[in-house]
Design goal:
mainly alpha, ABC transporter involved in vitamin B12 uptake, BtuC, two-stranded antiparallel sheet, 2% strand, Branched-chain amino acid ABC transporter permease, L-isoleucine transmembrane transporter activity
Length: 291
């Protein structure tokens, strides 16, 4: 097999992995701090993509302004469901909150189809010729997507590990009762968490919508791979979520060179199973909380 094809597949997988690392990071933060798997993350992505389409239509096509509006709108949506649903279920079981998140996912998707229908939409982005380096092709749009994703991820990790807010979030993750006894406002921390979850899921939806077609099932179809990537990296580990999603993305794209696109998800899950056979706790080795 040509090394050029392999390198192109690696680059494509890296792009997909990095942009999906944003909602995957949101999933692992909810699991590490709120202690349940948030099944609505995929549909928050979809909402972000549709908000981007609507903002572009209203603003006359401004890409940056529309992206900012869409990510902030998704953050507000996430906060709305936190205050009206998840906050009221904080003392309930994991299963109760999981089912509530599934219900929210269906509600968001149904609302989108009610107002936007089942048709396909595209986000208008500038078309530029690919950069060609001896057969290695890099789309300028992919480069911009990677830069946006890396910038957002760098901000998130700085917030988590270098700021007072991040220290409070990690304290709540370790022991909510002890954090509250130490003077930390746990509910304020949770509100910040859900705002971050919405913003990162929305940004992931915007970037994916720029790269692909916007459909009502856009995020729902990616929910299982994102959960798999979180498990691969180590549930509750932000760095693990990033590594897991990049590995998952690369595995899928490289698999297309051998088995075709219809079976790439099978190969990616095979990689997950092999890794978990040797490291059941995932790559980063932390199953419970954000450290």
């Amino acid at each position: 097999m040509s090394s050029v094809l392999l390198i192109n597949a690696l680059i494509s997988g890296m792009v997909v992995g990095l942009l999906l690392a944003l909602p995957a990071l949101a999933i692992t933060l909810v699991f590490g701090i709120a202690r349940f798997p948030n099944a609505a993350a995929g549909d928050y992505m979809t909402f972000g993509a549709y908000a981007m389409v609507a903002a572009q239509a209203l603003s006359g096509g401004s890409l940056a302004a529309s992206a900012i509006f869409a990510t902030l709108a998704t953050g507000l949506l996430s906060l709305f469901f936190y205050f009206w649903v998840f906050r009221k279920l904080e003392e309930r079981s994991l299963v109760s909150r999981l089912i509530a998140s599934i219900g929210i996912a269906f509600a968001v998707r149904a609302s989108i189809t009610l107002f936007a229908g089942h048709g396909q939409y595209t986000i208008q982005a500038p078309l530029q010729r690919a950069w060609n380096f001896d057969g290695i092709r890099i789309l300028p749009l992919d480069a911009y997507i990677v830069l946006a994703a890396l910038g957002a991820l760098a901000f998130m990790f700085a917030l988590l590990y270098l700021s007072p807010v991040g220290r409070r979030m990690r304290a709540v993750s370790d022991n909510p009762q002890l954090a509250a006894a130490g003077g930390i406002d746990v509910r304020r921390v949770m509100a910040i968490l859900w705002g971050i979850v919405g913003v990162f899921s929305g940004l992931g939806g915007v970037l994916l919508g720029i790269k692909a077609t916007v459909l009502p099932e856009l995020g729902w179809e990616l929910l299982l791979p994102m959960f798999a990537a979180v498990i691969l990296g180590g549930v509750g580990s932000p760095v693990g979520a990033l590594l897991g999603m990049v590995i998952f993305g690369i595995a899928q794209e490289v698999a297309t060179l051998y088995v075709g696109s219809a079976y790439k998800i099978v190969i990616a899950f095979a990689v997950l199973l092999v890794v978990l056979l040797f490291r059941p706790q995932g790559i980063m080795g932390r199953i419970q909380a954000v450290r």
